[in-house]
Design goal:
By secondary structure, the chain is an alpha/beta fold. The protein is 37% helix and 16% strand. The protein contains eight helices and ten strands. This is 5-oxoprolinase subunit A.
Length: 258
């Protein structure tokens, strides 16, 4: 076994079903990851799902994060919405407040926040919306840890608001040389080979470079890696990633605690 001093968190987007419709195997992923980004009913999820996932996460010692989004159930939160900053602030605060209620019922609390989809990508480069989201989270809890792309406008805004910025990498997404995500609309932007993905995660966790979409080497400063739960073979890929990290001697644990 390889020894390592590296530490990394594994997070996944969970609770993204709606009513009788489910997406992904939340319970299986909760046995693998260390942080759960729980949908707050604006892009997916509903109160019953929120309660079920937060309870299951708490039972396993998995950190609970608010996966806040634009109000866009039809588009799964993947469409940009040009909102007034005050309205966006209030909608983010509403979402995380709702999840906090269920977290408290499960005997814990919301430990961090990770914006979803179009909101995540927008605030990475949109100062006004980034500031609005940061203000909502500051009102919820000063110093709250937040996930985002390393070097993004979002993490800068979070730091300026007194939040705790945490860089995140994506296990199965391809990056540009600048460190942004290649659009899902482009072919090859999402990886599916579990072995390739798991070895990339070991490289990211240990500070080594990964290949960007132009064949160059990119080093990402990340304390958490996202393993998606809504792709084919998601559980098997997540398990391969966890096994590879364990074999490399990387300590896998939450970046935030309740």
């Amino acid at each position: 076994m390889t020894t390592s001093t590296a530490t990394i968190d594994l997070n996944a987007d969970l609770g993204e079903g709606l009513g009788s419709w489910s997406m992904g195997d939340d319970l299986a992923l909760l046995d693998i990851v260390t942080s759960a980004n729980v949908a707050c009913a604006f892009h997916a999820g509903d109160p019953s799902i929120m309660r079920t996932v937060t309870s299951a996460a708490a039972e396993r010692g998995v950190a609970i994060g608010a996966h806040v989004a634009y109000r866009d159930l039809h588009g799964f939160g993947r469409r940009f919405i040009d909102m007034e900053p005050e309205a966006l602030r209030d909608e983010v605060l509403y979402q995380i407040g709702a999840l906090e209620t269920f977290a408290q019922r499960a005997g814990t609390t919301v430990a961090y926040c990770k914006p979803h989809g179009a909101l995540y990508n927008t605030i990475a480069q949109h100062p006004e919306q980034a500031g609005a989201v940061a203000e909502a989270l500051r009102e919820f809890r000063p110093g709250l840890p937040v996930l985002g792309l390393p070097g993004s406008v979002w993490l800068e805004a979070a730091a300026a608001a007194g939040l705790t910025p945490v860089g995140e990498a994506f296990a199965d997404r391809v990056y540009t040389p600048e460190g942004s995500l290649v659009s899902r609309r482009e072919g090859g932007s999402v990886l599916h080979d579990a072995q390739v993905i798991s070895q990339r995660c070991v490289s990211m966790a240990t500070g080594q470079g990964i290949e960007d979409h132009r064949g160059g080497t990119l080093v990402l400063e990340a304390r958490s890696i996202c393993v998606h739960g809504d792709t084919p073979g998601a559980v098997e890929i997540a398990r391969a990633v966890r096994d590879a990290l364990d074999a490399a001697g990387v300590t896998v644990r939450p970046f935030a605690t309740a």
